[in-house]
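Running co-folding for alpha-D-glucopyranose.
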Amino acid sequence: MRNYEVICDIEREKRMSAMGFDCEMPTPKEPVSPWWTGAVVYQIWPRSFCDNDGDGVGDLRGIIGRLDYLNDGRGGGLGVDAIWLSPIFLSPLKDFGYDVSGYTEIDPTFGTLDTFDELVGEAHARGMRVVLDWVPNHTSDQHPWFLESRADVTNVKRDWYTWSDPREPGIPPNNWVSAFPSAGPAWTFDDHTGQYYLHSYTSSQPDLNWDNPKVRDAMLDTMRFWFDRDVDGLRIDVVHRLGKDPTLGDNDASGVEAEPTGPGRHDADWPTVHDRIRAIRSVADEYEDRLLVGEVYILDQARMVEYVLGGDQLHLAHNFVFLNQPWSAHSFGKVMSEFEAVASPDIEPAWCLNNHDHRRIRSRLDEDGDGYTRARAAALLLLGLRGTIFLYQGEELGLPDTDVAASLIVDVDGRDGARTPIPWEPPSVAGPGAGFTSGTPWLPVGATAETINVASLTDKDGSILELYRKLVRIRSATPALRGGSFHLIGTAADVFAYERREHCSAVTIAVNFSTVPQPMVRPLKNATKYRLLATSVSGEPAPLAALRPLEARWIQRISTTCS
Ligand code: GLC
């Protein structure tokens, strides 16, 4: 066998000679409860996943046709536990679905409610859950509620949004700015009624006024609509923005970053947010096993953890401090020890290194051309962690960002490069749409599609896709990885390492962040037998005591006695 990524039962003394065999894939996992414990969730950006009708934009039927790639329910595919669909609701697409004009309608670009129901049924049949993106902080300016609200100052829906008089003629009510630098102030003047309305993002995304209980109740009803259709969870967009200072006080001078990094903000993370989340949670609790995962974009882990405390708020909060770390063992060690200090072990963390708002990790870490190797190591770092893991479509292919020509950029914040279509087949075989579409793709397919595509990487020894597949499956079948406790191992200068433990079994995850070999952290002792579960680099295995440049490794320690 040429592939040493998964090697079983390597006893130290005979490790080199014994490395000539690959291991059986682990046996399927037992169901766990709740279902998101230790689960792997795959984020789909529907416009770019797969286009069935040839209009150049991905759609629900395209997703249905590719579900087996994610998990065929019989041990094939990536093996993920759930899919999260970025917005598919009715939208004028000024922010690609994060501007909703109908919360209980599917945008015709993607299909119909019937097709959606079919998608849920097909995902469930394969053992995958379905999570939808729910955008409660703001609507589209085309939403009927806003059209009414802006009609005149006495309209019954006027206070469904935040309207305010100018501070002085021509000056917005306060110093709040949009999270999109290109949008400038968070206020737009409405000539017709002579007041400003608040929008934390673009001016076509007016913020709902959650101080108004009618708004809350209307939004809670939209949750029920989807839960009644068997949706398994909601990813809640910018949930920290549901609480704002009702007196519209200025942000402190420090509060000028796009999203909060700590206290001092009046436009987000206001104490009222927690009761709002409790109301949202109580709706989820009307149903069985429904996940609420919040986009709590607060770059302060202690404040972020406040959103998952008490058993009556969010189940999970995405950790953006982790995602935004530079590539260094020290940084990751610091984030993890900080997290440990602020979060009790009963808090389930939610980790990701990619999503639709950020440059892809391979490109982010590619300054010296080693981005691909780092992306592979990052996969072991991520998928070894305790908690729920979120992958973003294309991450498993090692996709780099696509260079999108200025004339083709459509996103208000320039995030197009991470949102381009998934290449399913080489263009030389499938045409310029690379199996994504038979039409003209809405954003260009990456120039790397000839080699980086699903067909070429599937079943290819050593490919990053095969690596992800193994990691996801090993994780799900290994109790120490799926649900075991987390323990940081003191990090050497360039090595970040931690251990996951469950009863007598433990898995060490070690990542060499440097481009030179490093000693494996903590000499492997106190065990009778080790199993190398996975390494991020292919080729001849290195001795167990050393990590190759930019190598990450999962090693299971098997004790014969349980102490
Ligand atoms: C969230 C989404 C992002 C969107 C913004 C406004 O941050 O992830 O894509 O632009 O909210 O809704």
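Result summary
The CA atoms of residues 278 and 312 lie 6 Å apart.
The chain has 16 helices and 20 strands.
Job closed.
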